[in-house]
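Predict the 3D structure for this chain.
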Amino acid sequence: MSTYIPLYRKYRPQTFADLIGQESVVKTLSNAVNFGRISHAYLFTGPRGTGKTSSARILAKSINCVEGPTVSPCGKCPSCIDITYSSSVDVIEIDAASNRKVEDARNLLEKVHFVPVSGKYKVYIIDEVHMLTTEAFNTLLKTLEEPPKNLVFILATTESHKVLNTIISRCQRFDFKRVGQELIIEKLKDIAHKENIKINETALSLIARKAYGGMRDALGLLDQASVLANQEIEITENEVLSLFGSLSEEILHELAQNLAEKDTLKLLEIADRAVQSCDPVNVIRELVNYFRSLLIIKTSRDLQAVRELIDFSDNIIENIIVQSQHFETDEVVQIIEKLCEYERTIKTTHQQQLWLEISLLSICHRQDMQVIKDLQTRIERLEAGGVPAKVPQIIASEAKQPIIPPTTRDIPSPQPEQSEASHSTDSSVAALPQNDNLDMENVDAAWSKLLSCFKKEDSPSKAFYKIFKPVQINAEKIIITCANEKWIDKAKSEKLIPLQDAAKMLFGNLPPIVIRTPMPGDETEEKKTLHEDKPRIESPKPKQAAQIAIDVEEREIIETEIVQELEVLNKNIAPVNVSDQAKMVLDIFSGKVIE
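Done. Predicted structure below.
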């Protein structure tokens, strides 16, 4: 009985012509062989199963073949045969995962100085080179840069970002890409015909999709599925799905459709049916891949240009195009993010089906996504509407006329019995001009008007804000300052909502509010503008006591808050017992303690 050879080993590429999906790599390496420009070091990087190690062996054959250097090695000479069966003394393959220490690198360097035995070049193929330690990499640096004559290093890795930049800079880098689904299907058809495996094209398409662009994985899956075939019955899609534990395209489409329609009952029924043939983690992964394809279809203008990125058959793509109209682009992105989060949860839980149902129901309702969408719609509506509805018509009708800023006497103070609703509709509160360059009198008047819009229950906050100085008060921005950073923090954390409510009542919308410490330009700019606009400035009349004085109730509120702050600070100070002798020393040095 002969030993069975797996398909991925039996049909491993032996020449550059056998490599599929790597046209740029094949063309560059073929020209290097034909022109005799063989480099001393190469770095092959890319996903698994795309032909990195096979290309390294083919390059070793091409430069060591008896008829070579040639891009079509004969495969019959002793050198080609030894390389094919990994028994050549001139082509050494090293697994960096098990030979990653600095001692292994030193042992390798001791052997590189030996000349080739049967071929023209001595080739070292180091697979998974990213597994080497930093010390091992540094040991190889000098030899990798200036190796002995007729010595070639070929480094292969799936994670090039883990390779030191000093190593990469000494190599010619070749990036291997995933093989297209159509190319994989054609190759599988050819091998199935040679091996007399009866399998339909839909099943081959499913195998190609399951391989995720890896030709070696596709051959391994075909080898696994070939056991189901016999002389009379061919392998169908359902048998492949059952064997691999995958979902059909129809079930994925139904799950996505019920998520779009938010049909909870049907969604749970289909999820239960999917779990019967597929692991819950794989259900989430299949859905992620499905919504990825849906996102590509929805955001692309030319479907044919991105056809290779979509891992589904043409029949289901037509349905996905129609289905994509039920989702917004941001919504699809958030669904993919949610699915990835739940995948990590399902991996670590013992109740995987329960969490699968929870994840699907959460995405089905997606209330937070709807809230974001509603907020975005409202913002767009406000931006398109121009002047807010609550802003008095004086802005639109008298924008061209100069508006005389009201004095403090003209500012109406809120009545105690006046409700919040009456504040918002009070016609006596005039709108402020939409101008950033207001003089100091107008800023003070605007600040007083803003404080007058505080509700009755927010009187403590109103008294608190009287210690702040206004810099800019209008419908575009509110800037107030205070020298005490503690009061600034208190305003931002505890007293901000009453100020926002008053701004909404005054302007009809909520302008950005900036609370900060005073800056040097706050006063100079205003004085400069004042002098430019008014060459002659009359000395201001002294303000009446009623305009600048804080009433007794508000003063008591501020003093109470300051006392409370001081009590908190005093609690953190531990009492110190000072002896009589120490007190005398303190008195002598006027209270200064000298160490």
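The mean pLDDT is 78.
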